[in-house]
Amino acid sequence: MYEGVVQDLIDELGRLPGVGPKSAQRIAFHLLQADPVDVKRLADVLIEVKEKVKFCSICFNVSEDDQCRICRDPRREQSLICVVEEYKDVVAIERTREFRGRYHVLGGAISPIDGIGPEQLHIRELLMRLGDEAVTEVILATDPNLEGEATATYLTRMLGPLGLRVTRLASGLPVGGDLEYADEVTLGRAFAGRQAAT
Amino acid sequence: MYEGVVQDLIDELGRLPGVGPKSAQRIAFHLLQADPVDVKRLADVLIEVKEKVKFCSICFNVSEDDQCRICRDPRREQSLICVVEEYKDVVAIERTREFRGRYHVLGGAISPIDGIGPEQLHIRELLMRLGDEAVTEVILATDPNLEGEATATYLTRMLGPLGLRVTRLASGLPVGGDLEYADEVTLGRAFAGRQAAT
User: Fold this and answer.
1) Contact yes or no for A50 and B31 at CB 8 A
2) pLDDT 10s digits, B177-195
3) Function of this protein (chains A, B) (predicted)?
């Protein structure tokens, strides 16, 4: 429809997640008018990110070195591992400043419908870490959805025989939410997980 | 918040139109996991589009050559010029296959609020074309909004003394729409522009 390379650009942009054909067109036209220096910077950072960004050889977190900042930090507790699905979960948890241990990034969650089984995730590497390192507690922090729950259940079963403490993040009412708008599963979990008032 | 270059990528993506911080993050994480070949292809096409795509020296349409495909085409009527705001309007009109003349792309519309006056648009170049070329009719096909109307009014006034036929696209009910849902301006224009039933 459009001149050769403009159509190529629209096609490439349209492959990005959440970018439909109309948005791809809109972004392409913006780039056509944009300062070539700005477009070059975007192109460069795309190349750079694929060249520089590796995954930590210990925990599979995103890293510019062989080991990520968190695994290299001697102040982080060696005895605690928090298992998450993705890099963005690490960032979200770091933002809370509540966790001083280390991470293990699975690279997704078990989802038979998408053809992702335990062998596609970094579960074998987690077991190897538990053999090598002085870990006493594994915190399962997968997403509270179907795939995340399945993954946590699978890991609980796998880790059971190792004699570690295996915990899961609390389920309950989100802070700042309204009780009446909570779905029944969340509300049910909030009851099941109730604690002594202090 | 994220490791150096990942944050740079999120920042650059966030500058694109319609890409908010959350979408930028989502796209960045997608690219982190993506095949380097695919990311390279996107980076290459960004560079290529800025290198290759120029603007037609006659009509300011997007073109990979000094003159665009339409201006080079001897079968297009030389006597008709359709004035549009942007390249995407050319594509939209070409899609109808109703117009066999040539275009003039203004590069926007008059919008004092955005600091765009007639001198920021390719209006001077349009007047030069009308002096040189054997044009008998100029069709004003700016957007039917405030800026487009202002631009059309301005051009009508400018072109009046030249003794050309100056026309505007018909305003009226969109085909396939419901009369009851038409806004009053559109419906008013549909009345004003009513034609003999055939």
Assistant:
1) yes
2) 787 777 887 888 778 778 7
3) May play a role in DNA repair. It seems to be involved in an RecBC-independent recombinational process of DNA repair. It may act with RecF and RecO.
> Do the domain assignments include residue A38?
yes
Q: What pTM, to 2 d.p., does this model score?
A: 0.70
Cβ-contact A123, A115 below 8 angstroms? no
Q: Do A30 and A87 fall into the same domain?
A: no
Report which of B93, B92, B90, B95 is spatially closest to residue B59, judged by C-alpha positions. Answer: B90
Examine the domain organization and report whether A16 and A96 are in the same domain: no
Percentage of chain B beyond pLDDT 70 is 98
Q: How far is B87 from chain A (nearest CA, A)?
A: 8
Structure tokens given for A28:
């392409």
Token look-up 């070409």 returns B94
Would you say residue B176 has pLDDT above 70?
A: yes
Write the CATH number for A33. 1.10.8.420
Is residue A58, in this structure, part of any structural domain at all? no
From chain B, pick out residues whose CB is under 8 angstroms from the CB of A63.
3
Contact B87 A32 (CB under 8 A): yes
Calculate how close chain B gets to A36, using CA atoms only, in Å.
Answer: 6
- B43–A43 CB contact, under 8 Å: yes
Flag whether the ipTM exceeds 0.85: no
> A115 is in which domain, residue-wise?
74-168
Min Cα separation A9/chain B (Å): 6
What pLDDT is attached to residue B1? 64
In chain A, the residue whose alpha carbon lies closest to the alpha carbon of B52 is A5
Q: How far is A43 from chain B (nearest CA, A)?
A: 4
Q: Does residue A65 contact residue A54 with C-beta atoms inside 8 Å?
A: yes
CATH number of the domain bearing residue A139: 3.40.1360.10
Residue B25 shares a structural domain with residue B103: no
Which of A6, A42, A68 is opposite residue B12, by nearest beta carbon?
Answer: A42
How wide is the angle at C-alpha B180 spanned by C-alphas B178 and B183, nearest 5°? 95
Both A47 and A88 in one domain: the answer is no
Residues of A in contact with B25 (CB under 8 A): 88
Length of chain A equals: 198
pLDDT per residue over A140-198, tens digit each?
Answer: 999 888 899 999 999 999 998 888 899 988 888 787 778 777 788 888 877 877 777 77
Count structural domains, chain B: 2
